[in-house]
Amino acid sequence: MSIEHWMVFGTFAEQRHFEYPAKGTYDGVVINANMAAHAPGGLAAFLLEKTAGMQYIIDPLTHAFQHGCKAILNKEGEPKSSIRRLAEIYGEPVASNVGKIPINPEHFSDEKVLRKFVRQCLDFQSNQLKEQMVKSKVAKYLDDDKREFHPYALVAPYFYLTESTLDDWLPKNLDAALIASELTDSSKSLRFASIVVSQGIVTDTEARRRIIEGYSKLDIDGFLFWVDALDEQTASKTELRGLLALASGLRKNGERFVLNLHGGYFSILAAGALGNGVLTGVAHGPEFGEYREVVPVGGGIPIAKYYIPQLHSRVRYRDALRIFRAAGWLDDADKFHAEVCNCAECQSVLDGDIANFKKFGEGTVKSIRRKHGIVRIEFPTGETKLRCLRHYLQRKKREYDVAAEEANRTILLNNLREGEDKFKSIAGLDAVAHLRLWRSIFSPEEET
Questions:
Q1: 440 assigned to some structural domain
Q2: Average pLDDT value for residue range 279-302
Q3: Are 80 and 49 in the same domain?
Q4: pLDDT greater at residue 302 or residue 295
Q5: Is the predicted pLDDT of residue 145 greater than 70, yes or no?
Q6: What DSSP designation does 97 have?
């Protein structure tokens, strides 16, 4: 069963990772509209040079205009330049209100206003990067099969849905998707809607029913799907089952494309045999992005983390070190590769010497001013972050391959059980509880 593997573009510093661990690893790239508005030339070059022939979708990011203005303001209290530029392109009602007041459903009470907004949003997705690519000197050297510059899909404007705002925003989302389906040339790009919802929505049977029923009546091809801040490793059974139920309803018996914009191994399994393909594909960012908040809450102090394959989890380097030592897997390199990871990055870093595992956790100490004085904090070096990232990307590719190619449900379920059995005694029950929960969801008859 095929599982599409997409990557979300974050920053230009990350663009080299779209060719790692090998060209052709990813089926497509998702680009946020504010990035496309701010740096179309750079993104066009990225698409031509780093991802030639790869599908791309521009997330219109219209939900950014509905939240409190703080989310889109810079330190000077002005709208961030990329958001301001996007508002100017989309026009009213966002252009005159950006950074002043959040957009509400009432701003679209006039059907003509909504129709014009949808048209300008679609025109932006259709032309912003395509025009830059057509003009590029690189384009003329591409083979014919790599000179298709249209987005894979055009996404209707959308707004974030919660239990308390469903009645307000769902009708506008449906209206926008209907208009978009009428305006989109389906011979060039697929017609998508975007379902961005709170965790409360996925646990609410009635809310799920209304969303599924509303979109089932529209002539569209698929969805971008995002559950706000849903960490699959800490999510409850009700939340994960709700995710599957909503995705399955949107999928419409496999007729429609559903891409989880921020998913981890649970979503990968859901897209494969264990979940009966309730997702078409799963996206993530380079190392980060398996879950994400709709309204950014700001970054924390970066910490070196090592992705433990059988836990399907990024673990603080010091915790990973303690676990591996307790198990005796740091006695020598061969044992580490046999018990933990034998990916190309781990083999290269260790280079036969288990002492080199420390390279996944090396850092530099810096003095940081805090409220109560100066504190010294260790930050991972650039080389450390790159090693952890390359290891992570190699393991993620294997996860997609195994879940797609291994149609035997028993083997996939046993892999989860083996991870739990192997790590429970050395890492603790909390570290493996998600594996047990996932197994029970995908196979209720399994003893837990």
A1: no
A2: 84
A3: yes
A4: 295
A5: no
A6: T
**What local confidence, expressed as pLDDT, does residue 286 receive?**
87
Evaluate whether 239 touches 203 at the Cβ level (below 8 Å): yes
d(CA 201, CA 164) in angstroms, rounded, equals 9
Phi-psi region of 205 (alpha: psi -120 to 50; beta: other; left: phi over 0): alpha
Residue closest to 132 by CA, chosen among 29, 62, 15, 36: 36
Return the structure tokens found at 115: 């129709």
Across 97-111, 168-182, 295-309, 377-391, least confident range:
295-309
What are φ and ψ of residue 130, in 5° steps? -60, -45
Domain assignment of residue 354, given as a range: 305-405
CA geometry: angle 166, 168, 174, nearest 5 deg? 80
In a domain, 426, yes or no: no
Strands 305-308 and 313-316: antiparallel
Question: Residue 204 has which token pair?
Answer: 């609410």
Rounded distance, CA 248 to CA 212, Å? 9
Residue where a domain terminates, one of 251, 284, 317: 284
CA 394/CA 346 separation, integer angstroms: 10
- Domains in the chain, number: 2
Residues 198, 377: Cα–Cα separation, whole Å: 34
- pLDDT at residue 80 tops 80: yes
Both 255 and 138 in a single domain? yes
Domain membership flag for residue 411: no
- Beta strands 363-370 and 313-316 are unpaired
Nearest 5°: the CA angle 399, 333, 436 is 35
Q: What is the pTM of this model?
A: 0.94
What is residue 290's predicted lDDT score, i.e. its pLDDT? Answer: 94
Same domain, 273 and 324: no
Strand partners, 221: none
First and final C-alpha spacing in the chain: 27
Distance separating alpha carbons of residues 287 and 390, to the nearest angstrom: 8
**DSSP percent split of the chain into helix, strand, coil, nearest 5:** 50, 15, 35
